Structure formats: structure tokens, C-alpha cells
Amino acid sequence: MATYPSTVPRITTTTAATPTENCRNCNPNTIEVLMGPFPSKIIEIDEIGMNANGCVTRTFQCDGLEDPVQTEFQWNRGAGGHSRDTPESVRRTLTCDNRGRWILMQDGLMTPIMEVQCFATSLNDGEDAGRR
Hints:
The chain is mainly β.
């Protein structure tokens, strides 16, 4: 009778984690870019991209006014918080989650975003300053 080794060779395979299909399917129209009277102003950058995990991202950037005091994003009419970087500019990237929602990750919180608005103030605030 033949004897066989006590161990059987194993083949180990690894599979890279792939994103769920939903994190690739966020609709850009589910975020309303709001524009109101001064100090609200236009958002200069609104770009769709993809992160290293293969999930869709959306980057917003708002540049401040001349002689800026503060530039910020307001999310979900303030209910989603505010984002500030420098007085000159603010930039945030949202990530599509596995439920097809745009998510802001900030201050340890993950907030679904439906609305964004930029506000900017300067030392020389004037009636038309926010519209440039």
C-alpha cells in the first residue's frame, strides 16, 4: 500500500476588494448647488472623479473674494454642517457610498449631502462682491 504525505498542498488565492456597484452610481443631480444673495457665491470647481477604491467622488471648490475674511461651504442648508479651510478657499471631496448617496466625511462624521452652498466675505464687502 502506498503512503501519501500527511499534508495536501493548498492553493491560496486573494481577491482584491472591489467596490459595490452602488458606489459607482451616485447621480450628480442628487446634490443641489444652491446660489442665493450675497454673501453666497458661485462654486468654481465641481468635478466628478474616482477614488483608489473605485468609488465615484465629487469635488467642490469655492474661491474667496479679494481681501477674504472667510470662505466656507454650507451643507444641507446648515443641517450638514460647515467646511472651512483658509479665508481664500475651501475644497471638499464627497464619496459615493454603497447606498448610492454622496457622503461628506468630516470631523469623524459621515453625512449624506443633498445641498451645498458657498459663502464668502471680504474686508471690502459690497452688494455685488459675491457674484464675480
